[in-house]
Amino acid sequence: MSDTPVTVFLVDDHALFRAGVRTELDSITDEVRVVGEAGSVAEAVAGIARTKPQVVLLDVHMPDGGGAEVLRRVRPELPDVVFLALSVSDAAEDVIAVIRAGARGYVTKTISSKELVRAIVRVADGDAVFSPRLAGFVLDAFADRPGSAPISDPELDLLTPRERDVLRLLARGYAYKEIASELFISVKTVETHVSSVLRKTQLSNRYELSRWASDRRLV
């Protein structure tokens, strides 16, 4: 590793989360330097082209297309930029989709600040980095092993990305207020998403939803 800090661009649709990550990175290390941020696909594409960072920290789900769309539009023009997914989602299909699109690694938002710095430096140096339980999804998918995690599920495909996020946290035992805090949405919005998921899955309560989510390796 050289003495020059790794330049980083943040992509996430939550401004509060971006501000938190930027503050943490700026305060704990001089190994990385945040050079820009964006809250949408269009802003990300323009900002990455302008700043030409070494590493992009990339959210998977955004309202206007998400991380895979950013990768699709940026990589042909800037093949040297490295992408590290940073997401609340640890679902197999999300991990596999963004890695197939060209990301070099995938870590979840439960990662500590120091671990995130190490992950950024490692992908900048050419390593692939994954949160522990996510590496198996990638190995299974790309090795085509028997029993590999499903990439497509017709029932799961009925749910929006935000509904999956809510379902995942609900299945882990989070209260509605905790889900709202984690996802930066209101409790009322959480209730609306849960009602929609119950309707689409034709299930009756959170306990059935938890079992349904567990069967699909969302938890």
In words, what does this structure look like?
By secondary structure, this protein is α/β, with parallel strands linked by helices. The protein is built from ten helices and six strands. The protein has helices at residues 15-28, 41-51, 67-74, 92-101, 113-124, 132-143, 161-171, 176-183, 187-201, 206-215; strands at 6-11, 32-38, 55-58, 82-87, 105-108, 129-130. A six-stranded parallel β-sheet has the order 2-1-3-4-5-6, with helices on both faces. Strand 1, helix 1 and strand 2 (32-38) form a beta-alpha-beta unit. The radius of gyration is 17 Å and the shape is globular. Mean pLDDT is 85; it is low at 145-152. Residues 7-124 form the Response regulatory domain. Keywords: DNA-binding, Phosphoprotein. This is Response regulator transcription factor. The modification 4-aspartylphosphate is found at residue 59.
Short description:
The protein is of the alpha/beta class and 219 residues long. Helices cover 51% and strands 13% of the residues.
List the topology elements.
Blueprint: E1 6-11, H1 15-28, E2 32-38, H2 41-51, E3 55-58, H3 67-74, E4 82-87, H4 92-101, E5 105-108, H5 113-124, E6 129-130, H6 132-143, H7 161-171, H8 176-183, H9 187-201, H10 206-215
Parallel strand pairs: 1-2, 1-3, 3-4, 4-5, 5-6
Helix pairs in contact: 2-3, 4-6, 7-9, 7-10, 8-9
The neighbouring-strand order within the major sheet is 2-1-3-4-5-6
Note the gap between the termini.
36 Å
Q: If you compute it from the alpha carbons, what radius of gyration comes out, rounded to the nearest whole angstrom?
A: 17 Å
Oligomeric state as shown: single chain
Number of helices: 10
Nearest-integer average pLDDT: 85
Q: Helix and strand string, N-terminal first?
A: EHEHEHEHEHEHHHHH
The total strand number stands at 6
**Percentage of residues assigned to helices:** 40-55%
Q: Which stretches of 5+ consecutive residues score pLDDT under 50? A: 145-152
Keywords: DNA-binding, Phosphoprotein
Protein name: Response regulator transcription factor
InterPro entries: CheY-like_superfamily (IPR011006), NreC/VraR/RcsB-like_REC (IPR058245), Sig_transdc_resp-reg_C-effctor (IPR016032), Sig_transdc_resp-reg_receiver (IPR001789), Tscrpt_reg_LuxR_C (IPR000792), WalR-like (IPR039420)
